[in-house]
Amino acid sequence: xxxxxxxxxxxxxxxxxxxxxxxxxxxxxxxxxxxxxxxxxxxxxxxxxxxxxxxxxxxxxxxxxxxxxxxxxxxxxxxxxxxxxxxxxxxxxxxxxxxxxxxxxxxxxxxxxxxxxxxxxxxxxxxxxxxxxxxxxxxxxxxxxxxxxxxxxxxxxxxxxxxxxxxxxxxxxxxxxxxxxxxxxxxxxxxxxxxxxxxxxxxxxxxxxxxxxxxxxxxxxxxxxxxxxxxxxxxxxxxxxxxxxxxxxxxxxxxxxxxxxxxxxxxxxxxxxxxxxxxxxxxxxxxxxxxxxxxxxxxxxxxxxxxxxxxxxxxxxxxxxxxxxxxxxxx
Length: 331
Prior knowledge:
The protein is an alpha/beta fold.
């Protein structure tokens, strides 16, 4: 197996405090404390920009609404956890259907200007943070865009951020929802620009009966190995080849790689979920690729997951999936 060596092998979770307009709008210190107690050192914060604008005007940034993010950065520093600030929804694009953006990031110059405006606002706010403490993930899971359109947007935004805060680590999600590596951007590895894959393949396992994924609602009962994705079967060997392609690009081009999201929905039978997770976690470790489970609390996580086939352990007022925690700690 090839290996990436540009990024530390961070391990942690996604936290959902500012994920959508319906999110609480803040984070909780106990999440950072628990992660640190368990030996994790990374948190990804998926954000929607609509939480810090006024009057639904994309250009009216109210920086006081970013103070909960300041708290998360402080807690990361306090507990030794690297904080990755990620736009789950940026001006002009999101995989989340909660809102319809009025312009398109990939084709509308105004959307790109607005996207850069929001990112440079963030960059100015956190430029004093240690480079080892805070990084940026520009946009969650780009899809429906050509490599050329995507590259134009990412290069322009990276250039603007690095003019404000030179050297800051920036992570780009792969194309097709984070599943396709981007060698066309490999030269940016020299400027601390890394790439992020996902651990959702095969989707017939990870998203079995996920309520928001209509096209997969009729998937057969999941199995692993040999899990289904549409009309394809994913073997263990195919899974190894999938991640080895990311690691191969990393090794050949000097690009860092992390798995920014992954895990099984709570509708996946627990035994099968753990079997599949152990295989992809083992492969990621072999490639020296870190990971961030989606999520800590909730359907893809280890706390308060509402699974019906788990013997939970009480932990600080939460229901803990100890078997899944043990598995993550192992890798």
